[in-house]
Amino acid sequence: DVTLINVFEVPAGQEQRAIAAWEEARDFLKTQPGYVTTTLHQAVTPDARFALINVATWTSAEAFAEATRRMREAGVFPAIEGLKINPALYRVVRGDESGTPEQD
Amino acid sequence: DVTLINVFEVPAGQEQRAIAAWEEARDFLKTQPGYVTTTLHQAVTPDARFALINVATWTSAEAFAEATRRMREAGVFPAIEGLKINPALYRVVRGDESGTPEQD
User: Which of B4, B3, B48, B46 is nearest to B22 (CA)?
Assistant: First the structure.
């Protein structure tokens, strides 16, 4: 599996609209091959720079790329003035244990 | 529990140094009351804006604040020229299921 982390910069006052837009995208993406799970986090720290961060799991980078290509084609994710998204794929490189890196 | 997500902006070529600095901080923080677990993610998407993202769990915001205060006092986290960190606490607001928000 691969981890998709999408870091959102949300203009003031637009959090609920951004969450609603995220829900539309999730409802589309979860029907796509390779989708595993997703979790949307909202900042509780006041004036955090990134108000929303999504952490999702997909079976492969290709499956994620194909699903987002289809989403763009379907025009599902409504544009929100000033909303910046930073989706990228990640792998786990360190955990709780000292000295034994996962892989480098 | 609370989720700490720390989004790192890492200057080019400094990823290994940033990971080493992160390990020093982890080795200190995991001895502190309230620490639960942590996972460091490294971007596999080429030139991702955020090269490293840490997702950790603490029993409370207060425990996290106290641990990081002690870490600063102990001077554990070496400064790396140009490294920007964006630590904030988050809560989960949406998951896989449509229509039943966790809490708003």
Answer: B4
B88–A37 CB contact, under 8 Å? no
Dump pLDDT digits (tens) for B75-99: 988 788 899 999 999 999 999 998 6
Residues of B in contact with A23 (CB under 8 A): 94, 98
Q: Is B32 an 8 Å CB contact of chain A?
A: no
Q: Are B30 and A66 in contact, with CB atoms under 8 Å apart? A: no
- Collect all residues with Cβ–Cβ distance below 8 Å to A14 and sequence separation of at least 6: A80, A81, A82, A83
Residue B104 has pLDDT above 80, yes or no: no
Q: In the predicted model, is pLDDT for residue A77 greater than 60? A: yes
Q: Is B79's Cβ below 8 Å from some Cβ in A? A: no
**Domains in chain B, CATH or no CATH each:** 2-90 (3.30.70.100)
